[in-house]
Amino acid sequence: MVQKQPRFRIAEIFGPTIQGEGRRAGTPCFFIRFAGCDSRCVWCDSPHAVLPQYVNQTPRKTTEEIMNELGALNAGPEWVVFSGGNPALFDLQDLVDLCYSELGLKCMVETQGTVWKEWMEDVDDLCVSPKPPSSHNMLDREGLHEFLVQTAAMSTPPYLKIVVFDDNDYLYARMTHYYFPQFEMFLSVGNEDPTLPTVGNPEPDPSVTMYSPQSTQDVVLEKTRWLMERVAQDPQMSDVRVLPQLHVLAWGNERGR
Ligand code: SF4
Q1: Which of 34, 42, 44 has most ligand 1 atoms within 8 Å of its beta carbon, as the pocket-test mutant?
Q2: Is the CB–ligand 1 distance for residue 88 below 6 Å?
Q3: Which of 43, 46, 196, 198 to mutate to test the pocket of ligand 1 (most atoms within 8 A of CB)?
């Protein structure tokens, strides 16, 4: 009997671009955005990869089709980022193996830390991004601990990346760093452009004042200064790194960047 190949809902495959956040910020890469997520962060700017009304309309692709699409992009990067949605919901062992063996690409995975899959042991970089209180989907300490203990066999330990919108989020980051100091931590500020579709507001009112790309960047920079000042004056956060979202500074909220 011929075995049916698994298919994955793919919101976007794009690149070359740069990784805008975390340990490898600035690194050239491709992106595969998987559609489907077990969280519903209100400010999430990828509703097309989260909300069922959009996810159900995204094409389903086999591993071979994904590989063909990736291979057809302009060459350059040595990395491919699996993002989402939550890529940890899917069995991506074959895709990880083929990216390396056929295209020579190293894999980075971005996940919120709610679901562990064994194939993640084989990736070259794992970003765990637990969601803070402002998301309305906060991952608690026990949940994060359960996930992180399973990463023990990874040759490169994962790192933590937390998006900070307000004081409560900062306290969450601080508490997380206190309980898991062995994991590198990166912080960046959230993007609050009211014209941007989000999970909490997938169809923003078009009459809301439009941001120009410049003002998006001004807002992000102002908030980043606020966050840098907090971290710089906080002895408990002396080994935490604050980064702006580089892709937002370069391209604003343009999709596919
Ligand atoms: S921010 Fe991440 S975890 Fe939260 S809903 Fe969006 S894709 Fe899912």
Answers
A1: 44
A2: no
A3: 46
**pTM for the whole thing?**
0.94
From ligand 1's centre to the CA of 170, what distance in Å? 18
Measure the CA–CA gap between 221 and 21, rounded to whole angstroms.
Answer: 14
Kind of pairing between the strands at 241-242 and 185-189: parallel
User: Tokens 């190949």 identify what position?
Assistant: 5
Q: Which two tokens stand for residue 234?
A: 């906080």
pLDDT tens digits along 156-210: 999 999 999 999 999 999 999 999 999 999 999 988 788 888 999 999 887 776 6
Residue nearest ligand 1's atom 4 by CA: 41
Q: What is the DSSP string of 136-205?
A: T-PPPHHHHHHHHHTTTT-SS--EEEEEE-SHHHHHHHHHHHHH-TTS-EEEEEPP--TTS--SS-SS--
Atom of ligand 1 nearest to the CA of 85: 7
Exposure string of 89-105, with b = 16+ CB inside 10 Å and e = fewer, is bbebebbbebbbeebeb
Give 215's contacts (C-beta < 8 A, 6+ positions apart).
Answer: none
pLDDT in tens, 103-145: 999 999 999 999 999 999 999 999 999 999 999 999 999 999 9
Whether residue 117 has its Cβ less than 6 Å from ligand 1: no
Q: What is the Å distance from ligand 1's center to 255 Cα?
A: 16
Alpha-carbon span 34 to 43, nearest angstrom? 18
